[in-house]
Amino acid sequence: MPKYTVIYNEDAGKNDNKSIAERFQQAAKRLKRSTTLKATSSRQEALDCVVDHIDQLDTVITIGGDGSINTVFSAFFKAKKSVKVGIIPGGTVNNFAKALEIPQDEEAAFDTILNGHPLAVDLTHTEDRAIISSLTLGTLADMARHVGQDEKKKWGPLIYLSKGIRQLIAKKSYQIKVSTADGDHVYRTRFLLATTTNSVGGFTNFDTSASPADGKIHLVILKHFSFMRLLGYLSYFLTGRFRDIKDVDQLTAQEVEISAVDSHLKVETRIDGDPSDQLPIKLGVEQGFVQVMVPK
């Protein structure tokens, strides 16, 4: 009989996480399944909770968006062990949940956890944390930094397009080196995106070749920027046809190292919308490392 541990952030602004956790507990109780609720006040507390109790856990339930899922997957990476995961989407964008077709509706998400089936998905990571949806640098990283929670709630994915266009026009370029098993690739770029799924910024057609279970890191690099082609970039972004743009390079790999050509240059990255390490950064994939409950 499955046993559930619901980990939720009780201090994440104006949320209803405790009530959601309690409603899930009642839904599981009707099936005579036990549920433990664990309230945390920080990412580190949640991460430590999973790592310290990994051998006693059966199924971990996370409430929230990509950042909340990232905390659980990062704990698995640190523990070098995983358990089954159930997701109750509570973020604004929910790239990972959408890629797995996990319902955004609360009751349907409960049913997926209680009556769905486990799907083995990859754990993509840096040297110390997981990547659930994406790693960005340049324009896309700046875009995420300038999008507030209130804006995300009000405008949803559209706010990313608006901010992205502004940053793309104003942002300077970086000279970076991308190293894979196929060799070194040097670019002067305004943005780089490493993604694990087909969904970026809430748009599920961004890269239809990407899957959470394909064992690959998918990279999109803007090699050349043309203001005259800005509307074209937007169209390709919405329709997932980036590979058709001559200004864009696409790479896939199981291991990637990204560095600045000028080692003294500080280039910041963001992972799943949150601040991460500066370059250089190494990425890898543990294929099929985690089982996530998905609809039948």
Automatic annotation (TrEMBL):
UniProt xrefs under InterPro entries: ATP-NAD_kinase_N, Diacylglycerol/lipid_kinase, Diacylglycerol_kinase_cat_dom, Lipid_Phosphate_FormReg, NAD/diacylglycerol_kinase_sf, YegS/DAGK_C
Cofactor(s) in the UniProt record: Mg(2+)
Transmembrane segments: none
Top EC class for this record: transferase
Keywords, comma-separated and alphabetical: ATP-binding, Kinase, Lipid biosynthesis, Lipid metabolism, Nucleotide-binding, Phospholipid biosynthesis, Phospholipid metabolism, Transferase
Keyword check for Glycoprotein: no
Family matches, as PANTHER family: SPHINGOSINE KINASE, SPHINGOSINE KINASE RELATED PROTEIN
Similarity annotation: Belongs to the diacylglycerol/lipid kinase family.
Name this polypeptide is given: Diacylglycerol kinase (ATP)
Native source organism of the sequence: Pediococcus pentosaceus
